[in-house]
Amino acid sequence: MEYFKKNKLYKFVALGALIMFTYIATANLAKAGNLTTLRDTLSTPAPSTASDHTIIFTTASAITASGHISITPRAGYFTIPASLDYRDIDVQVNSTNISLAATAGSGIGAAWGVAVTSGTSGSVTLTLNDTNSVAGNSSIEIKIGTNANFGTTGTNQITNPVTTGSYVVDINTSTNTNSEIDTGAYALAIVEPVGVSGDVSSTPTPTATPTPAPTTPSSGGSGGGYLPPAPSVPKFPISNPCDFPPADLNCDKKVNAKDFSILMYYWQKQGTNIRADINKDSTVNLLDFAIMMYWWNK
After folding, report:
1. Is 259 exposed, middle or buried (0-12, 13-18, 19+ CB in 10 A)?
2. Are 31 and 183 in contact (CB under 8 A)?
3. Contact partners, residue 78, CB within 8 Å, separation at least 6
4. Strand 112-117's sheet: what is its strand order?
5. N- or C-end of the chain: fewer Cβ atoms within 10 A?
6. Strand, helix or coil at 151?
7. Is the pLDDT of residue 124 over 70?
8. Cα torsion for 45, 49, 50, 56, to the nearest 10°?
């Protein structure tokens, strides 16, 4: 009974650690007066690979007419092609599509302008038209790449950094005179693809070491009663990882708090054939955590 109480407590502690870890990671990137619900979904997180971006955030303050939204990856990592322009970008404000052009238009409903600075120190800047503003607490979605399909379909994508790691992207809104309104930042995990077998019939099943049956203590001894053996610890497969999804560490075809508790058990451990080393770089770290969050509850 004590074993099951401890096991249940461990799950609650693991889930609490997940919430705390997520909170700390977000708090470290946030700035005062900020954009909220900030996230960026990549079509692929592989290094040196062209990828689509779907960026979503909520404004804290209104963006005035002719104001700006700037998306700036930290210099030296992501590569923005010179060919990327407004035709590779979609913008929605509160689920309403916004027309885009090379320069901002004039009048109600006119197009927003798109300015792109290419290279590894590049940026994408959107300029509102001279009449419409964006209210505070507005939900904004920006698609960059082949996922942009409003009016025309995008053909150009931003290329990921050449090495795995966590890379920061800054977003800020400003007035037509470039006075800052809101700011925010987020980190993107660039990871090697995780190999997945297509043969689900070979999915290993976690096994537990059998507990020996209680034995009757021999007679004739003095003192000391019978002590039952300690409960066994489940053995998770190492050499034959679960086929799918890659972050399913206990092979129950779900990615949830149980898998997170396994990840935390191996956290920062190094070596080969570590079960929680999802991307197989011989270290259990933030990259493995990022992969697990991608597959969470799937």
Report:
1. buried
2. yes
3. 120, 122, 158, 159, 160, 161, 167, 169
4. 100-101, 112-117, 123-127, 68-73, 165-174, 180-190
5. N
6. coil
7. yes
8. 10
pLDDT one-digit tens code per residue, 32-91: 468 998 889 999 989 999 999 999 999 999 999 999 999 999 999 999 999 999 999 999
The counts of H helices and E strands in the chain are 3, 15
CA distance 186 to 290: 13
Does CATH number 3.30.200.20 belong to domain 31-190?
no
* Contact residues for 234 (Cβ-Cβ < 8 A; gap 6+): 206, 207, 208, 250
User: What is 1-30+235-298's CATH number, 1.10.1330.10, 1.10.3720.10, 1.20.1440.230, 2.60.40.10?
Assistant: 1.10.1330.10
Q: How far apart are CA 265 and CA 21, in angstroms?
A: 15
Among residues 194, 203, 160, 184, the alpha carbon closest in space to that of 290 is found at: 194
